Amino acid sequence: MSEPYDHLLEKYARLVIRVGVNVQPGQAVVITCLPEQAEAARALAAEAYRVGASRVSIDYGDPHLQRSAVLHAPEDQLGTSRPDELDKVRAWRETKPALISLTGNPFPTLMDGLDPQRLAKSAPLSLIQEIIPLVTTNTLAWTVVGAPTPGWAASVGVADVAALWDAVAVAMRLDEADPEQAWRAHIAKLRTRASVLNHHAFDKVRYRGPGTDVTIGLAPESHWVGGSSANEDGVEFVPNMPTEEVFFSPDWRRAEGTLRTTAPFFLTTMGAMVEDLELELRDGTITGVRASRGEAEVQQQFELIPRSRHLGEVAIVDADSRVASTGLVYKDMLYDENVGSHIAWGMGYPAAFRGALELSPEERIDSGLNQANTHVDIVVGSPEVQIDGIHADGSVVPVTRGDEFVLRD
To answer: Side-chain half-sphere of 293: how many Cα atoms within 13 Å?
Structure first.
């Protein structure tokens, strides 16, 4: 490691607690992670108490339990959640804890060879259905952040977990003299970029390159956002650390064309790696799916989860990405979506769709904002993929060229 491990973990915890979820005095904190990420979770808990948290909970999950269920559980029990698990999440509407989710799969091949249909059914959809509205509407301050493990390091292909921590430190700007200030400057840059895009008021965007030629429409309420958000109480937080994107929630009814992923990704709910994914979209619906790996798992998710065949996010990431600068494929959606420009199927974010917070889920769908119990980001950008903005009169304006953001006010 480039510096003593304890010191790096301390900087990591300070950044996540003070900027990522911006813990307030007297606030509760909930950390979700795997047992292999316990050291990072404990560092976050200690820092949360230092800034005045009232109570910190660490909720451990275990993918081995999901594997056992897929192999042996009764069909009608797959994906079910205990009433107390659901009640705990429902209580968050009132208690509003800061929610920290650790990512970085220690066992990326654990689900290989399992029945895709049973694997799809094992996703805890009732629990996801309770959590997604809390985070997509920013009821809570929340963040997703990586926590390196030996298994994750091995899947990435680096020498050891220390080498992965070094890469994570670069991606999270922990190598800066003042990481907190570096993040504030980065957030300001992303906000400025979103403002430039909103000033142009594009009707559509087009992504075009090898295997990709897709046009995606904005609704009148769609607007570009990036960097940080604010919860219901006005507390600023950063939903993803790292983040390099500006994005909007599209009109789910307006997507036409084809796209091809430029990076593999891990489909978390299915426990599957997906490579060389190609999608066809017609009238806003994903109508065709092909992949060299993980095709069956993607198809199963589309068949299992209502409205997952519609888009919920369109994002731009340029060559300045700190994640891309590390040169790694992380096999983790949080990191790999920040390697390049991407789109997501499933849930659209009300924060990127004006007025959506005041609408019911059904009204959001009617206005063009997709609602679904999943959100899957896939990278389609590269130096060969160019992005254009298209005005309502048909005029075309370059947005990126060669992975460089070229749009100006």
So the answer is: 13
Report yes or no: 120 and 270 within 8 Å, Cβ to Cβ.
Answer: yes
- Return the closest-CA partner of residue 149 out of 101, 108, 111, 110: 108
DSSP 17: I
pLDDT in tens, 151-175: 999 999 999 999 999 999 999 999 9
Q: Report d(CA 13, CA 225) in Å as an integer.
A: 26
Evaluate whether 264 touches 289 at the Cβ level (below 8 Å). no
For residue 344, give the 3-state DSSP assignment: strand
Task: Find the largest Cα–Cα distance for the chain.
Answer: 58
pLDDT in tens, 10-43: 999 999 999 999 999 999 999 999 999 999 999 9
Q: Over the chain, what is the mean pLDDT? A: 94
Domains observed in the chain: 5-171 (3.40.1830.10), 201-226+242-405 (no CATH)
CA distance 60 to 66: 13
- Select from 302, 227, 213, 285 the least CA-distant residue to 251: 285
Q: Is the peptide bond before 306 cis (omega within 30 degrees of 0)?
A: no
At 309 the pLDDT is 98
Residue 93 identity (one-letter amino acid): R
Q: How far, in Å, CA of 97 to CA of 27, rounded?
A: 6
C-alpha dihedral (49, 21, 30, 224), degrees to nearest 10: 180
Please say whether the beta carbons of 296 and 112 come within 8 A.
no
The C-alpha atoms of residue 370 and residue 83 are separated, in whole angstroms, by 28
Q: What is the pLDDT of residues 372-400, one digit of tens each?
A: 989 999 999 999 999 999 999 999 999 99
Is the distance from CB of 299 to CB of 247 less than 8 angstroms? no
Residue with tokens 């609602």: 371
* DSSP notation for 242-285: S---EEE---TT-EEEEEE-SS-EEEGGGTEEEBS-EEEEETTE
Distances (CA, A) of 328 to 155, 208, 388: 11, 24, 27
